[in-house]
Specification:
Number of strands: 0
Order of helices and strands: HHHHH
Structural class: mainly alpha
Largest sheet: none
Number of helices: 5
Helix content: over 70%
Distance between the termini: 39 Å
Amino acid sequence: MPTSYDATTVWGVIVVAGVLTFAIRGSFVYLFGRIDEIPPQVQSALEYVPAAVFAALVFPAILVPEGAVSLSLGNERLVAGVLAAIAAWYTERVFVTIVVGMGTLWVLRFVV
């Protein structure tokens, strides 16, 4: 796809993004290489990272399936997500959660 940017600008952006990414990752290696133990406040904050990342990935796909917020029963992803969350809450098993969520989504999408 042609753009209005010249090749120098595009390559400049790619190089700067690469250097910044390398610097951010390198700073963590340098920082955690210099300290022997992670402070308790940082450890407790890092415990919430997986849940925050999961929520950031999943909630937009469930709540905004076609570009607009859909909180109705017509949103099959929302219904499947709620049932999967209930299954996860009661069973605490990943496999059961996936089966309930995907099973519900498939039934609502292909049967109903």
